[in-house]
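User: structure tokens for this one?
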Amino acid sequence: MDETDRRIIAELRRNAREATSNIAARLGLARSTVHERIRRMERDGPIEGYSVVLSRDPSGSRVQILILVEIRQQDTRKVLQRLESFPEIQSCLSINGDYDLALTAEAPRIEELDRLIDRIGLLPGVVRTNTFVVFGRRFDRSRAETLADTDVLPEQLAIRRVSASFLPF
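Assistant:
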């Protein structure tokens, strides 16, 4: 991946639905060059695919939590399979330290998340959990725009983005 690929990815992160010709014009490249480079990055990496980022409820009625989970190593696969079945869980990260997993979860009401924490704690193989309530989002680099780029709050953005396995910038 070279600097031109990085610039194309930056444009796609801003708007993955942008016309190739518009990206090419902004970067001072031929449309065919941009098109071929995007196809190559989709085929060979680093672009794994495209996803939709849904706008959050502007009323702020969704509650988000972070859950740290310690598991018995021999039960990792079973625990992960069960965690994937909970629709409230948005992401699961493997981490080091006293805990093995960091989960993000959200629901309209804190009571639903309280029940989720209880269900997770009862899973065979889960040793303990530690939960944190998210009060607000200061910035989020996984989104195409940040507070500095827009007057719209990140929770109100409805954009598409590139999901890449390796972005060196």
